[in-house]
TrEMBL record:
<protein>
    <submittedName>
        <fullName>AMP-dependent synthetase and ligase</fullName>
    </submittedName>
</protein>
<dbReference type="InterPro" id="IPR045851">
    <property type="entry name" value="AMP-bd_C_sf"/>
</dbReference>
<dbReference type="GO" id="GO:0004467">
    <property type="term" value="F:long-chain fatty acid-CoA ligase activity"/>
</dbReference>
<dbReference type="Pfam" id="PF23562">
    <property type="entry name" value="AMP-binding_C_3"/>
</dbReference>
<dbReference type="InterPro" id="IPR020845">
    <property type="entry name" value="AMP-binding_CS"/>
</dbReference>
<dbReference type="GO" id="GO:0016020">
    <property type="term" value="C:membrane"/>
</dbReference>
<dbReference type="InterPro" id="IPR000873">
    <property type="entry name" value="AMP-dep_synth/lig_dom"/>
</dbReference>
<keyword id="KW-0276">Fatty acid metabolism</keyword>
<dbReference type="InterPro" id="IPR042099">
    <property type="entry name" value="ANL_N_sf"/>
</dbReference>
<keyword id="KW-0443">Lipid metabolism</keyword>
<dbReference type="InterPro" id="IPR020459">
    <property type="entry name" value="AMP-binding"/>
</dbReference>
<feature type="domain" description="AMP-dependent synthetase/ligase">
    <location>
        <begin position="30"/>
        <end position="429"/>
    </location>
</feature>
<dbReference type="Pfam" id="PF00501">
    <property type="entry name" value="AMP-binding"/>
</dbReference>
<keyword id="KW-0436">Ligase</keyword>
Length: 609
């Protein structure tokens, strides 16, 4: 159980040892993708051969150790192939989010001096062709899909492999003697950043390999395990956990067709582990409760009884003793409810791993009560990325768990979380100043505020940059307040503002599906979402919500007013980063006039009182 080769020091060593271990075993496959309605596995042998052929072609085209080659693609088998081939040459890969617009791609490719790029399809190729004249170092473009007609200086991946095969037949020694050291840079991942230009995080082979080794002691995997992959591979979280860790343990990766097909793909792939983000749980919970409400009657009562029984069982388990009555009830609930729910997740799921953003405590407790374990973790691109994760045998919701092996955590005097370990990045590409700001005396300054409990579990309270300082000088962490607001089924997204203001205001994106149901129940007629959020009865729903939330907050933390927003914050409208974090400054800027109006109206009230 665990790592196939526990001694790898570089990623090419990891790949080579796993390929050797499975050589000739046609029934074993690291990756499976959907073709004509069914999952088709790709064997280790065919992936290894493709990797050698592509690497030989890249080397022939002048890609050498230390050169940067970008990957601009959605998750697909060729992403893994491109990564392996680039790294096997000692070159550095630069993953790009497929959602990035051409101007941002141009900035990154010029900043890192990319000599080559491997793109997925015509859409992504079109972006590159539009900016190619402005790309100083780029001279090699490979496209994974077939071209309808030849394009000058662009080569199809199949042709690149075919040429690579010929090169190896003529010169079998082509790939011999390439040396990669643990401290060589493996990848430069550009953090999208909620402010300013993206910075290139340099992660070495040691950073990534040590992080994989640390994770393998917490999340124990072997050849019988499999995952369903849908988070972007351009993100460090999916790359380390969902790719390198899975591959290192001989587990299989099933590629989801899209975010929309996850439920169907889970049933088909029957994964044992899924790496995901909190937003997925909110959707799953909402769909579950909607389906239960639709069935109504006895089935609905049994479901909520099972949830309540699960809560009791896990509370008593945490205290060390489960009463015989609760134990019997829990077994019955398992037969009637939990077992059926587990089948909807394929029947083999051991746990979800949640990262990328804070998991609301109540969400974690809800899934635990129905027999589904979520392991929440924490990390940053700069830390390769995993630093903390809850342990399967002792999950504490509301925390991100204790540190993984080889990672030290310390809380600075101002509450900032500091980290140290072999997983800490080499620095930011061509930005010594930014590097010196975050790495001091070997400690990485995360910019997150947190605390460590008596059991060594870390709790994140907020981002240092997000702390709101009111005009009265009060320091307020918005995240806990936002999480309370998000507990309402009528809220899809929220952001609290109040910097240099006398009090807090919340921007709320309603859950319009839930709101429409409310409107039809209360005979509210609205032709559009805009009319819906202007309806008096709807406004009362949110007024009541904020009154309920305010009872749980200190006076200076209370949200005095809200603004209902019609358009969701998304990557497409540039109000979210590709990793689904709110771009707070951009959101504030977009709604600045409406926010000002609310404050001015309220100030008048406050001033006349």
């Amino acid at each position: 159980m665990g790592l196939i080769n526990p001694d790898f020091r570089t990623l090419p060593e990891l790949f080579t040892s796993v390929f050797s271990h499975f050589k000739g075993q046609s029934d074993q496959a690291p990756i499976a993708r959907k073709i004509n309605g069914a999952y088709v596995p790709i064997s280790y042998d065919s992936l290894a051969e493709d990797c050698r052929q592509l690497a030989a072609f890249l080397k022939e085209k002048g890609i050498e150790s230390g050169d940067r080659v970008a990957i601009l693609s959605e998750n697909r088998p060729s992403w893994y192939l491109a990564d392996m081939a680039i790294l096997s040459l000692g070159a550095i890969d630069v993953p790009l989010y497929p959602s990035l617009p051409p101007n941002q791609i141009e900035y990154i490719l010029n900043n890192c001096g990319a000599k080559g790029i491997i793109v997925s399809n015509m859409l992504q190729l079109g972006k590159i062709l539009s900016i190619w004249p402005k790309l100083n170092d780029l001279n090699l473009v490979i496209v994974m899909n077939k071209l309808d007609e030849p394009i000058e200086d662009v080569i199809e991946l199949s042709q690149a492999k075919s040429e690579g095969k010929k090169i190896l037949e003529a010169a079998p020694w082509q790939l011999d003697g390439i040396k990669t050291g643990p401290d060589d840079v493996a990848t430069i991942i550009y953090t999208s950043g909620t402010t300013g230009l993206p910075k290139g995080v340099m992660l070495t082979h040691r950073n990534l390999c040590e992080n994989v080794k640390s994770c393998s002691t917490v999340i124990r995997l072997d050849e019988t395990d499999s995952s369903l992959s849908f988070l972007p591979l351009s993100h460090a979280y999916e790359r380390t956990g969902g790719y390198y860790l899975m591959f290192a343990c001989g587990a299989r990766i099933y590629l989801a067709e899209s975010i929309e097909t996850i439920s169907l793909n889970i049933m088909e792939a029957k994964p044992t582990i899924i790496f995901t983000v909190p937003r997925l749980f909110d959707r799953m919970k909402a769909n579950m409760l909607k389906a239960v409400a639709k069935e109504g009657g006895l089935k609905e009562k049994i479901f909520y009884w099972a949830v309540s029984t699960g809560e009791k069982y896990h509370n008593q388990l945490a205290e060390g003793k489960v009463s015989p009555i609760v134990n019997v009830q829990h077994k019955l609930a398992d037969k009637l409810v939990y077992h059926k729910l587990r089948e909807k997740f394929g029947g083999r799921l051991r746990y979800f791993v949640s990262g990328g953003a804070a998991l609301p405590q109540k969400t974690g407790e809800f899934f635990q009560s129905i027999g589904i374990t979520i392991l929440e973790g924490f990390g940053l691109t700069e830390t390769s990325p995993v630093t903390n994760v809850n342990r399967p045998e002792n999950v504490k919701f509301g925390t991100v768990g204790p540190p993984v092996k080889n990672v030290e955590v310390r809380i600075a005097q101002d509450g900032e979380i500091l980290l140290k370990g072999p997983n800490i990045m080499k620095g930011y590409w061509k930005d010594d100043e930014a590097t010196a700001e975050v790495i001091k005396d070997g400690w990485f300054y995360t910019g997150d505020i947190g605390e460590i409990d008596a059991d060594g579990y870390l709790k994140i309270t907020d981002r240092k940059k997000h702390i709101i300082v009111t005009s009265g000088g009060k320091n307020i962490a918005p995240l806990p307040i936002e999480n309370l607001i998000l507990e309402s089924p009528y809220v899809d997204q929220t952001m609290v503002v109040g910097e240099k203001r006398p009090f807090l205001i919340a921007l709320i994106v309603p859950d319009f599906q839930k709101l429409s149901e409310f409107a039809s129940e209360h005979q509210i007629t609205a032709g559009s979402n805009k009319e819906l959020i202007e309806a008096k009865e709807v406004i009362k729903v949110y007024e009541q919500l904020l009154r309920t939330v305010s009872r749980q907050l200190a006076t200076h933390e209370k949200v005095r007013k809200f603004l209902l927003v019609e358009e969701a914050f998304s990557i497409e409208n540039a109000l979210m980063t590709p990793t689904l974090k709110l771009k707070r400054k951009e959101i504030s800027k977009k709604y600045n006039d409406e926010i000002d109006k609310l404050y001015n109206a309220l100030n008048m009230v406050y001033n006349t009182e």
